[in-house]
Amino acid sequence: MIIITGVEGFIGSNLRKHLQDHNEIVEVTIDNCMQFIDTFDQWKDVKLILHQGAISSTTEKNLSKLHKFNVEFTLSLFKKAIIYQIDTKYASSASVYGNNRYYKYNPLNYYAISKLQIDLFVQDNIKKFSNIQGFRYYNVYGNGEEEKIKLNQASPISKFKDDILKKGFLNLFKGSDKFYRDFVNVDDVMNVVLNNKKDSGIYDLGTSTPISFSDVAEEVANKFNGNIIEVPFPEHLKNKYQSYTCAKSEWVKEDFKFKTVRNFLDENYLV
Description:
The chain is of the alpha/beta class. The protein has nine helices and twelve strands. 38% of the residues lie in helices and 18% in strands. Helix 1 (10-19) packs across helix 7 (186-195), helix 6 packs parallel to helix 8 and helix 8 (213-224) runs parallel beside helix 9 (261-268). The N and C termini lie far apart (42 Å). The mean pLDDT is 93.
Protein backbone atom coordinates (compact mmCIF):
# COMPACT_ATOMS: atom_id res chain seq x y z
CA MET A 1 0.00 0.00 0.00
CA ILE A 2 1.30 3.47 -0.97
CA ILE A 3 -0.05 6.77 0.34
CA ILE A 4 0.11 9.65 -2.12
CA THR A 5 -0.86 13.11 -0.91
CA GLY A 6 -1.57 15.86 -3.40
CA VAL A 7 -2.90 13.45 -6.03
CA GLU A 8 -4.89 16.33 -7.52
CA GLY A 9 -1.67 18.21 -8.20
CA PHE A 10 0.81 18.02 -11.06
CA ILE A 11 3.54 15.91 -9.45
CA GLY A 12 1.18 13.84 -7.30
CA SER A 13 -0.99 12.90 -10.28
CA ASN A 14 2.10 11.86 -12.22
CA LEU A 15 3.23 9.63 -9.35
CA ARG A 16 -0.20 8.01 -9.25
CA LYS A 17 -0.07 7.39 -12.99
CA HIS A 18 3.31 5.68 -12.66
CA LEU A 19 2.33 3.50 -9.71
CA GLN A 20 -1.39 2.71 -9.88
CA ASP A 21 -1.20 -0.36 -12.16
CA HIS A 22 0.85 -2.45 -9.73
CA ASN A 23 0.15 -0.95 -6.30
CA GLU A 24 -2.74 -0.24 -3.97
CA ILE A 25 -2.87 3.55 -3.78
CA VAL A 26 -4.41 5.55 -0.94
CA GLU A 27 -5.19 9.00 -2.32
CA VAL A 28 -5.10 12.01 -0.04
CA THR A 29 -6.22 15.49 -1.10
CA ILE A 30 -6.28 18.92 0.50
CA ASP A 31 -10.00 18.43 1.14
CA ASN A 32 -9.68 15.19 3.11
CA CYS A 33 -6.16 15.30 4.57
CA MET A 34 -6.98 16.30 8.15
CA GLN A 35 -9.78 13.76 8.37
CA PHE A 36 -7.43 11.16 6.89
CA ILE A 37 -4.93 11.58 9.72
CA ASP A 38 -7.70 11.13 12.30
CA THR A 39 -9.45 8.14 10.73
CA PHE A 40 -6.96 6.07 8.70
CA ASP A 41 -6.18 2.83 10.55
CA GLN A 42 -4.07 0.75 8.16
CA TRP A 43 -0.65 2.27 8.82
CA LYS A 44 0.93 -1.15 9.34
CA ASP A 45 0.11 -2.04 5.72
CA VAL A 46 1.73 1.07 4.24
CA LYS A 47 5.14 0.53 2.62
CA LEU A 48 5.71 4.04 1.25
CA ILE A 49 4.45 7.60 1.76
CA LEU A 50 4.77 10.01 -1.17
CA HIS A 51 3.89 13.37 0.34
CA GLN A 52 3.36 15.92 -2.43
CA GLY A 53 0.34 17.83 -1.12
CA ALA A 54 0.60 21.48 -0.11
CA ILE A 55 -0.73 24.96 -0.68
CA SER A 56 1.76 25.75 -3.44
CA SER A 57 0.99 29.37 -4.32
CA THR A 58 4.00 31.55 -3.58
CA THR A 59 1.69 34.57 -3.20
CA GLU A 60 -0.64 32.96 -0.64
CA LYS A 61 -1.33 35.44 2.18
CA ASN A 62 -3.58 33.29 4.39
CA LEU A 63 -1.02 32.22 6.98
CA SER A 64 -3.35 30.02 9.01
CA LYS A 65 -4.27 28.09 5.85
CA LEU A 66 -0.61 27.67 4.90
CA HIS A 67 0.32 26.52 8.38
CA LYS A 68 -2.57 24.08 8.63
CA PHE A 69 -1.90 22.24 5.38
CA ASN A 70 1.82 22.76 4.80
CA VAL A 71 3.05 22.38 8.37
CA GLU A 72 0.48 20.85 10.74
CA PHE A 73 -0.69 18.12 8.38
CA THR A 74 2.84 17.31 7.25
CA LEU A 75 4.13 16.99 10.81
CA SER A 76 1.19 14.73 11.72
CA LEU A 77 1.91 12.54 8.69
CA PHE A 78 5.63 12.36 9.42
CA LYS A 79 5.01 11.39 13.03
CA LYS A 80 2.99 8.43 11.72
CA ALA A 81 5.90 7.55 9.44
CA ILE A 82 8.22 7.53 12.45
CA ILE A 83 5.89 5.47 14.65
CA TYR A 84 5.25 2.84 11.97
CA GLN A 85 8.69 3.10 10.31
CA ILE A 86 7.33 3.86 6.84
CA ASP A 87 9.74 4.99 4.11
CA THR A 88 8.83 8.53 3.05
CA LYS A 89 9.57 10.76 0.09
CA TYR A 90 8.30 14.33 0.21
CA ALA A 91 8.20 17.56 -1.74
CA SER A 92 10.39 20.30 -0.39
CA SER A 93 11.15 23.28 -2.62
CA ALA A 94 14.10 25.18 -4.03
CA SER A 95 12.28 28.30 -2.85
CA VAL A 96 13.91 27.83 0.57
CA TYR A 97 17.09 29.30 -0.94
CA GLY A 98 15.44 32.47 -2.23
CA ASN A 99 17.99 34.51 -4.17
CA ASN A 100 20.99 32.99 -2.39
CA ARG A 101 23.21 31.31 -4.97
CA TYR A 102 25.25 29.49 -2.33
CA TYR A 103 22.42 27.26 -1.04
CA LYS A 104 21.91 29.19 2.19
CA TYR A 105 18.35 29.53 3.43
CA ASN A 106 16.70 32.78 2.39
CA PRO A 107 12.94 32.20 1.87
CA LEU A 108 11.22 35.13 0.16
CA ASN A 109 7.58 34.25 0.85
CA TYR A 110 5.36 32.41 3.32
CA TYR A 111 5.16 29.31 1.13
CA ALA A 112 8.94 28.98 1.19
CA ILE A 113 8.99 29.51 4.96
CA SER A 114 6.48 26.68 5.42
CA LYS A 115 8.67 24.35 3.34
CA LEU A 116 11.75 25.30 5.32
CA GLN A 117 9.97 24.56 8.60
CA ILE A 118 9.41 20.97 7.46
CA ASP A 119 12.99 20.58 6.22
CA LEU A 120 14.32 21.70 9.58
CA PHE A 121 12.07 19.21 11.38
CA VAL A 122 13.34 16.43 9.12
CA GLN A 123 16.97 17.41 9.66
CA ASP A 124 16.47 17.40 13.43
CA ASN A 125 14.68 14.02 13.44
CA ILE A 126 16.21 12.24 10.46
CA LYS A 127 17.55 9.28 12.46
CA LYS A 128 14.07 8.48 13.72
CA PHE A 129 12.79 7.65 10.21
CA SER A 130 13.33 4.30 8.49
CA ASN A 131 14.22 6.31 5.37
CA ILE A 132 13.11 9.79 4.39
CA GLN A 133 14.03 11.75 1.29
CA GLY A 134 13.06 15.36 0.72
CA PHE A 135 13.28 16.75 -2.79
CA ARG A 136 13.83 20.44 -3.35
CA TYR A 137 12.08 20.58 -6.68
CA TYR A 138 13.22 23.31 -8.99
CA ASN A 139 10.93 24.48 -11.80
CA VAL A 140 9.05 21.35 -12.80
CA TYR A 141 7.25 21.35 -16.14
CA GLY A 142 5.87 18.89 -18.66
CA ASN A 143 2.78 17.29 -20.09
CA GLY A 144 -0.34 17.46 -17.95
CA GLU A 145 -0.20 21.05 -16.71
CA GLU A 146 -3.70 21.91 -17.93
CA GLU A 147 -5.12 22.44 -14.43
CA LYS A 148 -2.12 24.54 -13.45
CA ILE A 149 -2.72 26.78 -16.46
CA LYS A 150 -6.28 27.43 -15.25
CA LEU A 151 -4.92 28.37 -11.80
CA ASN A 152 -2.16 30.53 -13.31
CA GLN A 153 0.46 28.29 -11.68
CA ALA A 154 1.82 26.56 -14.79
CA SER A 155 5.44 26.58 -15.83
CA PRO A 156 6.46 29.25 -18.37
CA ILE A 157 6.95 26.51 -20.95
CA SER A 158 3.33 25.40 -20.75
CA LYS A 159 1.91 28.90 -20.25
CA PHE A 160 3.83 30.35 -23.20
CA LYS A 161 2.72 27.47 -25.42
CA ASP A 162 -0.90 27.89 -24.36
CA ASP A 163 -0.80 31.65 -24.99
CA ILE A 164 0.66 31.27 -28.49
CA LEU A 165 -1.82 28.57 -29.50
CA LYS A 166 -4.73 30.73 -28.28
CA LYS A 167 -3.57 34.24 -29.18
CA GLY A 168 -0.59 33.90 -31.51
CA PHE A 169 1.73 35.65 -29.05
CA LEU A 170 3.10 35.39 -25.53
CA ASN A 171 3.68 38.10 -22.94
CA LEU A 172 7.15 38.34 -21.43
CA PHE A 173 8.09 40.52 -18.47
CA LYS A 174 10.67 43.17 -19.26
CA GLY A 175 14.06 42.18 -17.89
CA SER A 176 13.37 38.45 -18.28
CA ASP A 177 16.83 37.96 -19.72
CA LYS A 178 18.12 38.53 -16.18
CA PHE A 179 15.92 35.89 -14.54
CA TYR A 180 17.21 32.33 -14.71
CA ARG A 181 15.47 29.12 -13.72
CA ASP A 182 16.45 25.47 -13.52
CA PHE A 183 13.60 23.87 -15.51
CA VAL A 184 13.30 20.13 -14.87
CA ASN A 185 10.91 17.85 -16.75
CA VAL A 186 8.33 15.96 -14.71
CA ASP A 187 9.30 12.62 -16.30
CA ASP A 188 12.86 13.10 -15.06
CA VAL A 189 11.50 13.98 -11.62
CA MET A 190 9.51 10.72 -11.58
CA ASN A 191 12.62 8.74 -12.48
CA VAL A 192 14.69 10.22 -9.66
CA VAL A 193 11.99 10.09 -6.97
CA LEU A 194 10.92 6.53 -7.69
CA ASN A 195 14.22 4.91 -8.64
CA ASN A 196 17.03 6.47 -6.63
CA LYS A 197 18.72 4.45 -3.86
CA LYS A 198 20.10 7.27 -1.74
CA ASP A 199 20.10 7.31 2.04
CA SER A 200 17.88 9.61 4.06
CA GLY A 201 18.48 13.27 3.24
CA ILE A 202 17.15 16.39 1.57
CA TYR A 203 18.25 16.71 -2.04
CA ASP A 204 18.05 19.31 -4.79
CA LEU A 205 16.18 18.02 -7.83
CA GLY A 206 16.90 19.93 -11.00
CA THR A 207 19.07 19.78 -14.11
CA SER A 208 21.82 22.05 -12.69
CA THR A 209 21.66 23.97 -16.01
CA PRO A 210 19.49 27.09 -15.65
CA ILE A 211 18.24 29.13 -18.60
CA SER A 212 16.63 32.56 -18.73
CA PHE A 213 12.93 33.24 -19.17
CA SER A 214 13.85 35.06 -22.38
CA ASP A 215 15.52 31.95 -23.77
CA VAL A 216 12.50 29.83 -22.85
CA ALA A 217 10.18 32.33 -24.54
CA GLU A 218 12.29 32.26 -27.71
CA GLU A 219 12.35 28.45 -27.76
CA VAL A 220 8.56 28.27 -27.45
CA ALA A 221 7.89 31.13 -29.85
CA ASN A 222 10.16 29.60 -32.48
CA LYS A 223 8.56 26.17 -32.04
CA PHE A 224 4.99 27.42 -32.43
CA ASN A 225 5.63 30.36 -34.76
CA GLY A 226 4.43 32.96 -32.26
CA ASN A 227 5.44 36.49 -31.34
CA ILE A 228 6.87 37.81 -28.08
CA ILE A 229 5.42 40.98 -26.55
CA GLU A 230 7.22 42.53 -23.59
CA VAL A 231 5.11 43.81 -20.70
CA PRO A 232 6.08 45.67 -17.50
CA PHE A 233 7.32 43.62 -14.57
CA PRO A 234 4.53 43.45 -11.94
CA GLU A 235 5.07 45.66 -8.91
CA HIS A 236 3.76 43.04 -6.47
CA LEU A 237 6.48 40.58 -7.52
CA LYS A 238 9.43 42.90 -7.09
CA ASN A 239 11.84 41.66 -4.41
CA LYS A 240 9.74 38.51 -4.00
CA TYR A 241 10.81 36.81 -7.21
CA GLN A 242 13.86 34.58 -7.38
CA SER A 243 16.32 35.91 -9.94
CA TYR A 244 18.35 32.71 -10.26
CA THR A 245 17.84 29.05 -9.41
CA CYS A 246 20.27 26.21 -10.05
CA ALA A 247 20.18 22.78 -8.41
CA LYS A 248 23.25 21.28 -6.85
CA SER A 249 24.60 18.41 -8.96
CA GLU A 250 23.13 15.65 -6.79
CA TRP A 251 22.35 13.15 -9.52
CA VAL A 252 25.14 13.23 -12.11
CA LYS A 253 27.22 10.53 -10.44
CA GLU A 254 24.02 8.50 -9.97
CA ASP A 255 23.75 8.43 -13.78
CA PHE A 256 20.35 10.10 -14.01
CA LYS A 257 19.77 12.01 -17.25
CA PHE A 258 17.77 15.22 -17.72
CA LYS A 259 16.22 16.57 -20.91
CA THR A 260 16.41 20.21 -21.96
CA VAL A 261 13.42 22.41 -22.79
CA ARG A 262 14.31 22.08 -26.47
CA ASN A 263 14.46 18.27 -26.14
CA PHE A 264 10.98 18.30 -24.60
CA LEU A 265 9.48 20.54 -27.28
CA ASP A 266 11.01 18.51 -30.10
CA GLU A 267 9.89 15.19 -28.59
CA ASN A 268 6.31 16.26 -27.94
CA TYR A 269 5.32 18.74 -30.63
CA LEU A 270 5.72 18.25 -34.36
CA VAL A 271 5.12 21.75 -35.68
